[in-house]
Design goal:
With 275 residues, this protein is α/β, with parallel strands linked by helices. The protein is built from 13 helices and five strands. A five-stranded mixed β-sheet has the order 1-2-3-4-5, sandwiched between helices. The longest helix is centred in the C-terminal third of the chain and has 32 residues, at 184-215.
């Protein structure tokens, strides 16, 4: 069974026919017809979707929210559904149905995670339970956006500048040589460990890139942010404290560099006071 807004549209009717799903008129009808509810909405609609079905949920139901929403929203969904007694799980889709079909990777957490996985894994779904804490799956996906979407923005800034200089092929060949030399985790570990003691030099190199972008008439949005963050890391004085020796692990490096956020909080507090 499935509920879909605007289900009278021809394309929705055809998809239901092809998949063998029976469309129902309301979320309440869906709860009456099913014991496992999978909510796949826009993140902004996540809480409203839970509210719309809550009156019909019982302790026998399992409600899995796969929307791309923050952990705090997923916890609000759980709070909304708590009076019903239903099991609730927080899930995050990590692939594309266009590429993987129904076997796209899904990570899930929370009290209903096991029931969700046990019910659908036999049908070929690739579901990984990442913990009993509600919100953990959404946190993993949400934090991944920092790197994945930030990488896109950096790539655009770099690619536009390379095109203007006429060095696109040479630049990407050079970058690929560096990236392809080691697996991602090896590169990430190396960069985190060495930046703890080389942040100042890397900030200066990023400043050089800012100057190049400005010479080309390109606003260095991402690169200026890189300079600011690296300078804040450098100002921690880790290079001197560690006597230029890189930390023994990337975990230790992260713990040391995390102190830069104290400056971020101070800046935020100051800006709020000034406003």
């Amino acid at each position: 069974f499935a509920y879909q807004r605007n289900s009278d549209r021809a394309v929705i009717q055809e998809r239901a026919r092809l998949s063998g799903a029976q469309l129902v008129r309301t979320p309440l009808d869906l709860a009456a017809s099913s014991d496992l509810i999978i909510a796949v909405t826009q993140g902004t609609d996540s809480l409203q979707a839970a509210r719309s079905i809550a009156p019909a949920l019982r302790a026998s139901h399992c409600y899995v929210d796969l929307a791309s929403a923050s952990p705090s929203i997923k916890k609000s969904v759980a709070d909304t559904l708590a009076p019903t007694g239903a099991l609730v799980a927080d899930g995050a889709i990590e692939g594309s149905p266009l590429e993987h079909g129904h076997q796209l990777p899904i990570i899930v957490s929370g009290p209903g995670a096991t029931k969700f996985a046990e019910a659908l894994a036999p049908w070929g779904l690739r579901i990984a339970i990442v913990g009993p804490e509600l919100g953990k799956a959404s946190a993993i996906k949400g934090l991944r956006h920092i790197l994945m979407k930030g990488q896109i923005a950096l790539l655009i800034e770099c690619a536009v500048a390379a095109r203007r200089y006429g060095v696109s092929d040479e630049l990407f060949a050079s970058v690929a040589q560096w990236y392809d030399a080691l697996p991602f985790m090896d590169n990430a570990t190396r960069l985190l460990r060495t930046t703890a003691v080389h942040a100042r030099r890397r900030a200066e190199e990023a400043e050089m890139a800012v100057a190049i972008l400005q010479d080309l008439g390109i606003e260095p949005i991402m690169t200026e942010a890189t300079v600011r963050l690296l300078k804040r890391i450098a100002d921690l004085g880790l290079r001197e404290a560690l006597e230029t020796q890189v930390p023994e692990s990337h975990i230790k490096a992260i713990e040391l560099m995390e102190k830069y956020t104290n400056g971020a909080r101070a800046d935020l507090k100051r800006s709020k006071t000034e406003s």
